[in-house]
Amino acid sequence: MQDEQPLKPDGTAVIIDDEYLRPFEHVLKERYARFTQDKERYDPLNSDFSLGHKVFGFNATPDGIFYREWLPYAKTVHLIGEFNNWNPHSHALHYTEYGRWEIFLPNLADGSRAIKHNTKVKISVLGANDETFTRIPAYINAVRQESGNPVYDGLYWEPEDYQWRNQSPPKPERLRIYEAHIGMATEVGKIGTYREFTRDVLPHISYLGYNTIQLMAVMEHSYYASFGYQVTNFFAPSSRFGTPEELKELVDTAHGLGFTVLLDLVHSHASSNSSDGINLMDGTDSCYFHSGGRGVHSGWDSKLFDYSKVEVKRFLLSNLRYWLEDFCFDGFRFDAVTSMLYYHHGLYKVPMSYDEYFGNEVDNDSVVYLTLANDFIHNLNPNAITIAEDVSGFACLCRPVEEGGVGFDYRLAMGLPDKWIALMKVPDEQWNMGNISFTLTNRRWKEANIAYCESHDQALVGDKTLAFWLMDAEMYTGMTILQDRFLHFHINLP
């Protein structure tokens, strides 16, 4: 047997399995070189670059509290909150370098903290336009909206350390994913909680035989109807469902039941809400985002990250590490990867050719960030799982980074659940078996896929669940032929 040739260390090894990539060898080399340069420059695994949450925001020491913020175009910054009766002048941050501001609050004479746990905090900023405004710290790890208050408040959060009981289970060879939204996982007409999910839903999922849970809407979002996809506070678990420690209890209990737990991660865009989120942090539209029209997703009215910026990479890589280490998530489903990959964000077309996968419409800053993120995640936790929500079939998205791929473990095969819903809308005898077979098998070689029978995209966003398509109102009126169809297809009776 001929010895296998060693991988070329230039990002072109993927061509061995796909000669159609040969004309784009120069693009593969360029992307890989940029990734390598970033990895060597930032060394996120071994440096504090991915520990931004341990540097910025609030960080307690034995002697007091450091607070730091990146606000490159701010003119003055003051820390305000219940601890100083919201005095806009008493606690000024001082500028250090590279757009960084900081303040140290020493412990009080009795040894207690200058800011009490679970009390409100914000910053008052004199921005680039000479206007003064308040913001929630970008790295805040807890927020809350009081009843009757139209906006959120940041919280200084320093509870007792959560004591973990269970380790993550072994990485499943085949994922059987239960997608869940904490707030909607209740039969009662109210928003569900982490504790209720832990008590009531986890045993049910275990009984059904799933091995993986994917949690939606965990990252804080002020607009509840966005299903969690308009994130305002990237390091704060949603306060609607309970406290950060109650989320840890949920993940811990899930691990004890043998579940791998994935976070539905939104790094593709951010809420344009500046009162609660990270938009206009320093008074400019370009702090974490592209300025002008390039920084706006016209379909979602949200802000688009500038992945070429050092502090944006620090913010997002630190966010990955935070959820993996502080909350022990086992990986991520990256939302809206198609939007990240292309300048047009898939708004008016879905690329489906090699020329489009390697052409001028691809945002290579995003590709390099996603490659860096996957490489970092899998080196930090070799058992971590990453899933890309991409509808375009982007070439090499799920090939290993060392071969020239972007490094995701799986692509979300979004066409399959759409196909199941489409089949429910026509009589069985009109099903096109050739088209069904093509949809089931239309995937790139050596790039693993995950397919749901249905997900929130079908069940919630402008459509109905499979059960409702099969039965609809007939479920309330009698055992008709529609219910018989449900029993055969949905419950899989003979």
Task: Explain the overall architecture.
With 494 residues, the chain is of the alpha/beta class. The protein has helices at residues 25-42, 194-208, 244-256, 310-326, 337-341, 354-357, 364-380, 415-424, 433-441, 456-459, 466-470, 481-489; strands spanning 57-61, 64-70, 76-81, 94-95, 100-106, 119-126, 132-135, 143-144, 153-156, 177-181, 212-216, 219-220, 233-237, 260-265, 270-271, 296-297, 302-303, 331-334, 385-388, 410-412, 449-450. A hairpin with a 4-residue loop joins strand 16 (296-297) and strand 17. It starts with 24 loop residues before the first helix and ends in a 5-residue tail after the last helix.
Topology:
Elements (H helix, E strand, L loop, with lengths): L24 H18 L14 E5 L2 E7 L5 E6 L12 E2 L4 E7 L12 E8 L5 E4 L7 E2 L8 E4 L20 E5 L12 H15 L3 E5 L2 E2 L12 E5 L6 H13 L3 E6 L4 E2 L24 E2 L4 E2 L6 H17 L4 E4 L2 H5 L12 H4 L6 H17 L4 E4 L21 E3 L2 H10 L8 H9 L7 E2 L5 H4 L6 H5 L10 H9 L5
Parallel strand pairs: 10-11, 11-14, 14-18, 18-19, 19-20, 20-21
Antiparallel strand pairs: 1-2, 2-5, 3-6, 4-5, 6-7, 6-9, 8-9, 12-13, 15-17, 16-17
Helix pairs in contact: 1-7, 2-3, 4-7
Short summary of the structure?
With 494 residues, this protein is an alpha/beta fold.
